[in-house]
Write a structure and sequence with these properties.
two-stranded antiparallel sheet; alpha/beta; binds iron/sulfur cluster; 4-stranded parallel β-sheet; single chain
Length: 145
C-alpha cells in the first residue's frame, strides 16, 4: 500500500485559487510519485466559491475578512474542520501546504491590511492541523517525504 500524503489542491494544478487559477508545482507533483495523494482545498471545503474575493487574517489572529470587509471567518472555520475530517477518514497524518495563504500558510501569511505585507504566522487550517497532530511537511527542507 502506498503511503498517503495530503496536499493543498492548488499545488497540484486544481483551479481552486481565489482568482480561479492554480499554483501548480511540477517538481512537487513529480516527487509525489509513489504516494497516494489526497488533494484538499480548505477554502472550497468551507463553502467559499471560486473565484472569490481574497481574504486575510486580522490582527486579532482569528477574524478573517475578505477585501470588501465581509467577515468570512465561519467559512475558514468550516474548512479547517472538514479538512481534518478528510485526513482522519483517510488515515493520513501528513500534509504539504501552500505557504502564504490565510488557510494553508504554514510559515508566513499576509498581515491583514491587504497591502501585500508578509508576517510570520499560520493560516487557519495549517494551525488547526498542526494542533491536531498532523505533520506539515516542508518539502524544500526535507528533500523527500
Ligand atoms: Fe490552495 Fe489552500 Fe488556497 Fe485552496 S485554500 S487555493 S488549497 S492555498
Amino acid at each position: 500500500m502506498k503511503p498517503k500524503i495530503a496536499v493543498s489542491a492548488c499545488l497540484l494544478g486544481h483551479l481552486c485559487k481565489y482568482n480561479g487559477g492554480h499554483n501548480l508545482d511540477s517538481e512537487l507533483v513529480k516527487s509525489l510519485q509513489g504516494y497516494e495523494v489526497i488533494p484538499v482545498c480548505p477554502e472550497e471545503l468551507g463553502g467559499l466559491s471560486t473565484p472569490r474575493i481574497p481574504s486575510e487574517i486580522q490582527s486579532d489572529g482569528h477574524t478573517v475578512l475578505d477585501q470588501t470587509g465581509k467577515d468570512v471567518t465561519a467559512f475558514f472555520e468550516r474548512g479547517k474542520h472538514r479538512t481534518l475530517a478528510i485526513l482522519r477518514e483517510q488515515g493520513c497524518d501528513k500534509i504539504i501546504l501552500k505557504d502564504g495563504s490565510p488557510s494553508c500558510g504554514y510559515t508566513w501569511i499576509y498581515d491583514g491590511t491587504f497591502s501585500r505585507s508578509r508576517i510570520r504566522g499560520e493560516g487557519v487550517t495549517a494551525q488547526y492541523l498542526r494542533q491536531n497532530g498532523v505533520s506539515i511537511i516542508d518539502r524544500l527542507e526535507e528533500g523527500e517525504l
